[in-house]
Amino acid sequence: MAEPALPPTALPSVASACHAVLTTAQPRAKLMLARHVSRAWRAGRLDHRFDRAMPDVPARPDAPELLPPNRMPRRSSGGGEKGRVALLHALAHIEFSAIDLAFDLIGRFGDGLPRDFVDDWMRVGAEEAMHFALVDRRLRQLGSHYGALPAHDGLWDAAHDTRDDLAARLAVVPLVLEARALDVTPQMIARLAQAGDSISSRILTRIASDEVGHVAAGVKWFETVANLRGFAPALTFQYLVQCHFRGTVKPPFNDSARRQAGLTQEYYAALAH
Hints:
Largest sheet: none
Helix content: 55-70%
Radius of gyration: 18 Å
Mean pLDDT: 93
Number of helices: 10
Distance between the termini: 48 Å
């Protein structure tokens, strides 16, 4: 499939290109545009300008149906194909939402920050698009597809709640929600391998490796912002999580993966419930 051209309204600035990703609803088109925008930035074809406001809510396809988290059907804990499809569908929705999270972060908060802020999150956005493509392809191999099951929009809700403060966004999204993926993905990988689904297990292994880098980018820029504001990073993180995160920070933690990403126990141990 040919790489899509950026629409005329998306050129030539970073902000307008990010806006184009966020306002593209169909999954295949969104992931292809995300990859294209990332390549355009690396090739120097996008100006480092922030001349377009990001939408309050990204465009969404007609499916999946988005339900409140408390109305989501419970996933089977067994190793059957139905349970594996439900797990992969939930993961596909997380990765689809994560494309928007990366490009919203750039377009909403990049003004006034160094170019390597855009470098880091363009890379993250392209990797999230690749993750979605891998999981959606696996769903199709299993006779399903993204949109076949309901999903919830908790990730975007967290982004919307932190739309006015970069430090709060970084604290809640990469340092809480994405860090949680570091904790739970090894068990998912083991369950898939035990069920004989080596293909899905390898996909999640690849995603887990990349997510360490995504959390590391979150730590890097959270500490940058905290230091610019003259605040102690760990204490600021704890304060912002208590103010802006609706859930709980709960063990068990994958301390080794978190430490690899630079997210030490100094950040999260005091918040654990």
